[in-house]
Write a structure and sequence with these properties.
Blueprint (H helix, E strand, L loop, with lengths): L16 E9 L4 H7 L3 H9 L8 E6 L1 H7 L14 E2 L4 E2 L6 E7 L2 H15 L3 E10 L19 H8 L12 E10 L1 H5 L3 H8 L19 H4 L2 E2 L5 E2 L2 E2 L2 E5 L4 E10 L3 H11 L14 E3 L3 E5 L2 H5 L7 H6 L9 H7 L1
Helix pairs in contact: 2-4
C-alpha cells in the first residue's frame, strides 16, 4: 500500500510564539533558494533538538513567480499571485513576496534563532520585505479582545481542508497558505460598546459563544467568512493568526495566516469581506482593521523539500508562462 505524502508542519497545534518572514528573491538567487530546501530540515533540527519541549517547526511557502523562475516540469494547479480585492470602501492589497517562512515554537527565541540561521544561509539572494513576531495573547484572544481560531477544523477534517489530494496528484500532501497583515485602530475599537464589538465579530466576547441566527448580523465577520455550498457543505481553512505590535511605531494588529487545499476558499472569504455579499454589505471589522499586506504561497510536501523539482533551465525559462499578477479574480477562475 502506498504511503500517504507527508505534509510540512501545517497541522501543528497552535503555539505561543511565531516569526513570519516574507522575502523576495533577487534575479540569479533562485538556485540558492532551491539549495536551501533539502537543508531546511537540518536547520530546524539544529535548533529544535536542544529544546525538545518547544515544538519548534518551520513551514516554507513558495510564491507563483519564484516557482516559475526556479523549477521545471509541472506546477501546482492552483498556484497564482495573491489577487488584490478592491471594494467600494475597503481594499486588500497584493504585496511583494517570493518566499514565506512560518516559524513556530512555545517561546520566541527559538523562532528567532531558526529564522536567523535560515536568513544567514540565503541572505545574499533575498531581501526581507516583511517580518512579524507574533505572540499568543491571554486566552488565545487577539488585540481586539476576542478569541481567534475557534472554528478551526481538527483531525481528519483539518487534513481534508488543508492538504492537496488526488485533485493534483503531483503535489499531494502540499497546501496553500494565504497571509495578510492587519493593523487595528484600537482607539476607535475601544470606543465602541461591547455589544457593538460583538455584533462586528459575531461572537460574545466573554464566553466566545457565536451569536445565534436571530442576532447574528449578516455583515459580521463570522457571517461573511463562513462559506457554505449549496449542498450544505461548509468550506474550511486552518488559521494560525497571531497578534503583534510595536509601541514605538504605534502599530497593533493581527497577522492572518490561513492554510487551505484550494486557495479559492480564502479568496471567497476575502471577496465577501471586502466587496460584500450582497455587494456593499462589507465586514464590520474592516471599519477598524486595515489590510496592509497580501501574499499567496504554495507549501510543498516534505518529500518535495528533500528532493526538489528539477531546476529551471534557460530554455525552459524563455518558454515559461508569464506571471499572472495582472489577472483579475474572474480571469483566475478561467485560467485555472
Amino acid at each position: 500500500m502506498p504511503v500517504d505524502p507527508q505534509p510540512q508542519a501545517v497541522l501543528t497545534p497552535l503555539t505561543e510564539s511565531a516569526v513570519f518572514l516574507t522575502l523576495t528573491v533577487a534575479e540569479g538567487g533562485e538556485q540558492t533558494v532551491r539549495d536551501l530546501l533539502p537543508e531546511l530540515g537540518g536547520l530546524v533540527r539544529s535548533v529544535g533538538f536542544r529544546l525538545p519541549d518547544e515544538g519548534l517547526t518551520c513551514v516554507l511557502g513558495i510564491g507563483s513567480d519564484l516557482w516559475d523562475r526556479t523549477f521545471d516540469g509541472p506546477r501546482p494547479t492552483a498556484l497564482h499571485p495573491f489577487v488584490e480585492v478592491t471594494g467600494a470602501r475597503h481594499h486588500a492589497p497584493s504585496t511583494p513576496g517570493d518566499l514565506f517562512l512560518h516559524v513556530r515554537a512555545q517561546r520566541l527565541y527559538p523562532c528567532f534563532d531558526l529564522a536567523r540561521l535560515i536568513h544567514d544561509r540565503i541572505g545574499g539572494a533575498v531581501e526581507v520585505v516583511d517580518e512579524v513576531h507574533g505572540f499568543r495573547y491571554f486566552d488565545r484572544r487577539d488585540l481586539l479582545g476576542f478569541v481567534d481560531g475557534t472554528e478551526n477544523p481538527v483531525g481528519d477534517d483539518a487534513a481534508a481542508a488543508v492538504l492537496i489530494g488526488d485533485e493534483d496528484p503531483d503535489f499531494a500532501g502540499g497546501s496553500y497558505v494565504m497571509t495578510q497583515k492587519y493593523l487595528h485602530d484600537l482607539t476607535g475599537w475601544q470606543a465602541q460598546s461591547v455589544e457593538a464589538q460583538e455584533r462586528a465579530v459575531g461572537r460574545r466576547q466573554l464566553d466566545n459563544v457565536e451569536l445565534d441566527e436571530a442576532t447574528q448580523p449578516p455583515d459580521s465577520h463570522v457571517a461573511l467568512t463562513t462559506i457554505v455550498e449549496q449542498d450544505g457543505t461548509e468550506r474550511e481553512i486552518l488559521r494560525d493568526n497571531m497578534p503583534f505590535g510595536s509601541i514605538a511605531r504605534g502599530e497593533y494588529g493581527t497577522y492572518f495566516i490561513g492554510y487551505a487545499a484550494d486557495p479559492d476558499v480564502p479568496e471567497r472569504m476575502l471577496r465577501r469581506m471586502f466587496v460584500g455579499e450582497p455587494v456593499g454589505s462589507t465586514d464590520r471589522l474592516l471599519e477598524f482593521s486595515t489590510a496592509v499586506t497580501g501574499g499567496l504561497f504554495f507549501v510543498p510536501p516534505a518529500a518535495m523539500l528533500d528532493d526538489p523539482p528539477p531546476a529551471r533551465t534557460d530554455a525552459a525559462a524563455e518558454e515559461a508562462t508569464p506571471a499572472r499578477s495582472d489577472l483579475g479574480i474572474g480571469d483566475l477562475r478561467t485560467a485555472r
